[in-house]
Amino acid sequence: MQKSLPTFLAATLLFAANSASAAPDAKAIARAAAEDPAKIEFFEKKIRPILIDNCYSCHSATTNSKGGLRTDDIGGLLTGGNSGAAITPGNPEDSLLLQAVKHEGFKMPPKKKLADEQIADLEKWIADGAAWPKAAFDENKKPNEKYETLKQNHWAWQPLTKPTVPQVENESWARGELDKFILARLEAEKLAPVGDAEKRDLIRRLTFDLIGLPPTLEEVNAFLADESPKAVEKLVDRLLASSSFGERWGRHWLDVARYGESTGSARNLPMPHAWRFRDYVIDSVNADKPYDKFVREQIAGDLLPATSPTEKAEQLVATGFLALGVKDVNQRFKVRYIMDNVDEQIDTVSRAILGLTASCARCHDHKFDPIPTKDYYALAGIFQSSDLCAGLRNKMGGGGLDYYDNNLLLTISTSKSTVNEEDLNKAKEAVKTAQAEFVKLRDSAEGAEKAPDGRPKRQVARQKWNRAQADLLALSDPAVLGEVAYGVRDGKAVADTEVRIRGEAEKLGPVVPRGFLSVVPVTNARPVNTDQSGRLELAYWLTSKENPLTSRVFVNRVWQKLFGEGIVKSVDNFGSTGDKPSHPELLDHLANQFVRDGWSLKKLVRSIVLSRTYQLSSVETLEHREIDPANRLVWRHSPRRLTAEEIRDASLVATAQLKADRPEKGTSQTLKVIEIRNNGAEAAKIADEALASPHRSVYLPLVRGQTPTSLAMFDPAEQGMVAGQRESTTVAPQALYLLNDPFVRSQSLALAERVRKEKEPLSLRISLAYEYVLGRPATGEELTRIESYLAEYQQAAAEILPQEAEKVVVKVEKPAIEEEKIVKPAADPDNVDQTDLTVRKEEAGPSDPELAAWASFCQALFGTAEFRYLK
User: Fold this and answer.
1) Cα 412 to Cα 315: distance, rounded to the nearest angstrom
2) Phi-psi region of 129 (alpha: psi -120 to 50; beta: other; left: phi over 0)
3) pTM
4) DSSP code string of 166-181
5) Is 200 in contact with 776 (CB distance < 8 Å)?
6) What angle is formed at CA 577 by the lines to CA 575 and CA 582, rounded to 5 degrees?
7) By the 8 A CB rule, do 190 and 175 touch?
8) Tens digit of pLDDT for each residue in 822-858?
9) DSSP string for 8-28
10) How many CB atoms lie within 10 A of CB 593?
11) Could you tell me the CA-to-CA distances from 468 to 74, 428, 431, 473 in Å, in that order?
């Protein structure tokens, strides 16, 4: 069925597209027919042989499934391929399969026509409901015997407790209830907490933890001079009010939301509107939007009431949470593409919000947690009843703009420019005509004939189609279409779905009513509205006060960002294979407080960072280390390495080059929806922007597979899955990056120029460099060593940097660093390729010996562990 008729092209902007699934009444008809033994017998005797002999060779799981259609399974026929559903049970007239075998417009099989008797049998089969034998599934299978025991005993699935604040011996040490929970455990182990952090360490810790940036020299000095008892409180409130707070803590949620600006997978296609979700998250965090509302908007923003067009647009953008995952657009089967995306949505929602691995139940009952397969498909019905609006469709082996589908976008503003609507309609019609011409020639003998220019006619037709698409794309920008976003909306086909046997998308088992996970009973849960997808009810089930997981998981995520480890170390897995909480009573205490305070992130963060526990020193003793080497009892503040974004942003702050505003438009927002090649022009543009951008790292282009080098070296978030906690590795390429990367070298030069502008004495300049990079002045010993180093380096550089030098390699011993420099300040354009010349100039560095010495010293500071680690 690979050929399609122009009359069956859907009214989309670019391509033929139909509903993601058959209408609910059609599915019901097919299921009812499958219960009739006589109809099943007719199928086996009459219909299956026709399909085997005439269709399977091109349209089955073991072939290339032309047109994305499978005829070896009822699910494949109901969902259809590129031209839509192949059969409509009970309605032969609307069934493309029947029209194809009658050779009405297009011919299947292509080289012969079925006998009239065979066509009549197919017509009867469809009219009688398209009976198909049900896949084997034991509907009476007993539930896993361990499930009830796990539900009753596993700590995470029990209702929130209201623990009593413990009594402690050292009452004066605790500043609040949080401290008493921590101190009670320490006293039980006969272990005292270490002393408080020094003020200089504390402001650096607080500023990085709350806004992801280092404190400025002026901010440090002001805090050190403030001896009032409210000094820390004032600092915290200032940081919470900063717009940088949303950029820092919004990035945490983007990690969890597996944010990316392309599809990844086999064909990496840009998602140029993804930035709207990023900005929504940052703005929501800055506004301290209640977390329960934040979650509801991301699950069902399109179904929530709104008081204004602006609020409705924001709610639509929020549903991008469900749309921005990895997608295999190269998947040949539409039904598999749909169910794989549903699985990705279930996995994201369950891990991100509930700390559960629900997608493990796609193929069989969960092996470790009480999540039966039927629960999985209760959720799957909700998401399958929703259109995934990511502007994309699947197509095996597509090219150009084949994967782009403007019909699958959410319009958030209908304001349009003065572009002539008639032009737009003509462009749409041209695409349809060109596509129909190509489809006609694609597999025919005529298509192989030569056109006047000597090329095959099918090739000429394909290029004509590509040009028509490009012309339409030029008109299909926000100025014409209105502002658009990625997200979800309720589909035209809203229905329960079937269990898929062994997780295979086409193997349909019994239908499961839409609903929620039974592992967490919520007595006040709203029943699914049969006229809608069920996402609205799911959103309220997730944020119900009776659901203990949502608040526990989020509070634990916040604790992990402030202490380096969660109270539950496995922040994305609260199931039976996850870790047990180190302080279960404290976790529930904080979760109750969080809900009581209106689900406010800022109030939660404020209460934690003002505790004495958070403000402990990071020093350790042998006694402490022997009793609790992992610091699970929190007897000190665990040091942590800065994140990839913090390292880059701190470099820009040190050189006074960071721009605090949000960039208007980045490279990833301008890319056309065609495949990004690893070594192509688009990848080069992305790399160039990342290198040159003075904005915060959260605004860098985050195309999957094209992570900016300045972030890639230091364990950025995995963009393909929920990443509540990043790795923190120490590997050799990190040192090489700090020695050789153009960004590091440019920042070193900029810092050198900044400190050289200061007045004498030399010691003041050196100490300023330390303060800009490390947040502290240089010690006397450091001043002596660096003064000697600068003099030695400058003398050596003066001898090897004459203009006439062709190529000089300089090795200079620095404090704990050895560096090679390639110097070629002059070159003969006649003998050197221009591309090579550009690279060499970039590597050359400063030609002024004094500036070269200072740049080398500044680069050494950026390479220190003290710069990368926070204590």
Assistant:
1) 9
2) left
3) 0.84
4) PP-S-GGG-SSHHHHH
5) yes
6) 80
7) no
8) 333 333 333 333 333 333 334 446 778 999 999 999 9
9) G--S-SSS----SS--HHHHH
10) 17
11) 36, 8, 5, 9
